[in-house]
């Protein structure tokens, strides 16, 4: 796998990144929540680990872009920061595209571990990289703490950023910080049908590439892959890919805090009856972001230029996210 990237040939290419495509209909949100290291976790990494083989039994069924599994995998033919949905040449991936490993230069030590949280109604699989070094860091002194959470039932995915030290993104990471999903990735040749990743955090925007765009990026423009940033995300940052909880709306009160109504088919009236501040994003059914606003009181959104169709409005706080579908006649 490292050889693939070591033999890059630089050629000129034009690369287009498609914005706000939705893997499995999921919407990306980015928020802050305190990072909590796992307790009583099962360590699966060997001593002085690099890429390694391991299995994580979920205890539930997880589905990602057409593939279903009850086990996640680490593979020695894959980078150390990636989880595989199925262990075969063509598989789907949840990961970082980062080559994590344990370094003898890191006196703290490093492990990869997991736990299955069954405290709620649905289980959450939590995978943790603790003090992972970066293969492309020439001194192997950088360190990253990261968790990936996978939710039973909703199939939602979260990337949770812990304390980290990355001296120089340009040299110590092969690509920009990547938090995303890949469909039908060939773990031997590193080809892929499509990838989805956080392109920007504020606003939260999904970038995606097809197989041709990804191959062009690998051979010419690695900086086009991943998060547009000058620094690794701060501890406490959470990148969440979640399926909106859709409820039909027709001039009705959604809950005790928010109500929606339409006026002459040209405006959407949003009433915030609580003291909670929401981030409000409105998407069309293709996942394109049409409107966004910090909602502290009430808002009137002009929909006059939008075609008659269904739309999704997403309300987000640091603690929750809820989405509703509404019709414009």
What report would you give on this structure?
The protein is mainly β and 329 residues long. The chain has 2 domains: 2-242, no CATH class; 248-328, Immunoglobulin-like (Sandwich). The chain is built from 3 helices and 24 strands. The chain has helices at residues 2-6, 169-172, 211-220; strands spanning 18-19, 27-32, 42-43, 54-64, 67-74, 82-84, 90-95, 100-101, 111-117, 124-134, 143-151, 157-165, 180-186, 194-201, 204-210, 237-242, 248-249, 258-263, 267-272, 278-284, 289-295, 298-302, 309-316, 321-328. The strands form 5 sheets. Strands 2, 3, 8, 9, 10, 11, 12 and 16 form an 8-stranded antiparallel sheet that branches. The chain has a 6-stranded antiparallel sheet with strand order 1-15-14-13-7-6.
SSE layout and pairing:
Layout: H1 2-6, E1 18-19, E2 27-32, E3 42-43, E4 54-64, E5 67-74, E6 82-84, E7 90-95, E8 100-101, E9 111-117, E10 124-134, E11 143-151, E12 157-165, H2 169-172, E13 180-186, E14 194-201, E15 204-210, H3 211-220, E16 237-242, E17 248-249, E18 258-263, E19 267-272, E20 278-284, E21 289-295, E22 298-302, E23 309-316, E24 321-328
Parallel strand pairs: 17-24
Antiparallel strand pairs: 1-15, 2-16, 3-9, 4-5, 6-7, 7-13, 8-10, 9-10, 10-11, 11-12, 12-16, 13-14, 14-15, 18-19, 19-22, 20-21, 20-23, 23-24
Keywords:
globular, Immunoglobulin-like, 24 strands, 6-stranded antiparallel β-sheet, 8-stranded antiparallel β-sheet
């Amino acid at each position: 796998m490292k050889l693939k990237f070591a033999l890059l040939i630089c050629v000129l290419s034009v690369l287009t990144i498609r914005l706000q495509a939705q893997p499995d209909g999921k919407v990306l949100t980015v928020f802050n929540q305190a990072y909590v290291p796992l307790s009583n976790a099962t360590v699966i990494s060997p001593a002085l680990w690099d890429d390694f083989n391991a299995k994580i039994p979920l205890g539930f069924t997880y589905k990602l872009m057409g593939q279903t599994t009850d086990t996640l995998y680490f593979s020695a033919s894959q980078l150390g920061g990636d989880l595989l949905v199925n262990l075969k040449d063509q598989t789907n991936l949840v990961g970082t595209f980062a080559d994590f490993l344990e370094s003898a230069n890191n006196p703290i030590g490093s492990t990869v571990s997991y736990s299955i949280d069954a405290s709620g109604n649905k289980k959450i699989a939590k995978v943790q990289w603790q003090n992972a070094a970066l293969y492309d860091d020439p001194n192997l002194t950088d360190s990253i703490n990261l968790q990936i959470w996978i939710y039973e039932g909703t199939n939602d995915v979260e990337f949770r950023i812990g304390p980290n030290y990355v001296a120089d993104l340009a040299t110590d990471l092969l690509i920009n910080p990547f938090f995303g999903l890949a469909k039908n990735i060939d773990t031997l040749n590193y080809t892929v049908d499509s990838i989805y990743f956080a392109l920007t955090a504020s606003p939260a925007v999904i970038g995606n590439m097809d197989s041709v765009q990804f191959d062009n990026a690998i051979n010419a423009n690695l900086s086009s892959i991943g998060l547009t940033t000058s620094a690794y995300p701060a501890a406490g940052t959470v990148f969440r890919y979640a399926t909106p909880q859709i409820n039909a709306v027709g001039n009705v009160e959604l809950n005790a805090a928010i109500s929606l109504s339409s006026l002459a088919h040209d405006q959407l009236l949003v009433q915030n009856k609580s003291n909670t501040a929401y981030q409000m994003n409105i998407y069309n059914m293709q996942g394109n972001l049409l409107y966004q606003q910090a909602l502290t009181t009430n808002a009137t959104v002009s929909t006059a230029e939008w075609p008659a169709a269904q739309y999704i409005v997403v309300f987000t706080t640091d603690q929750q996210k809820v989405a509703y579908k509404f019709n414009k006649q």
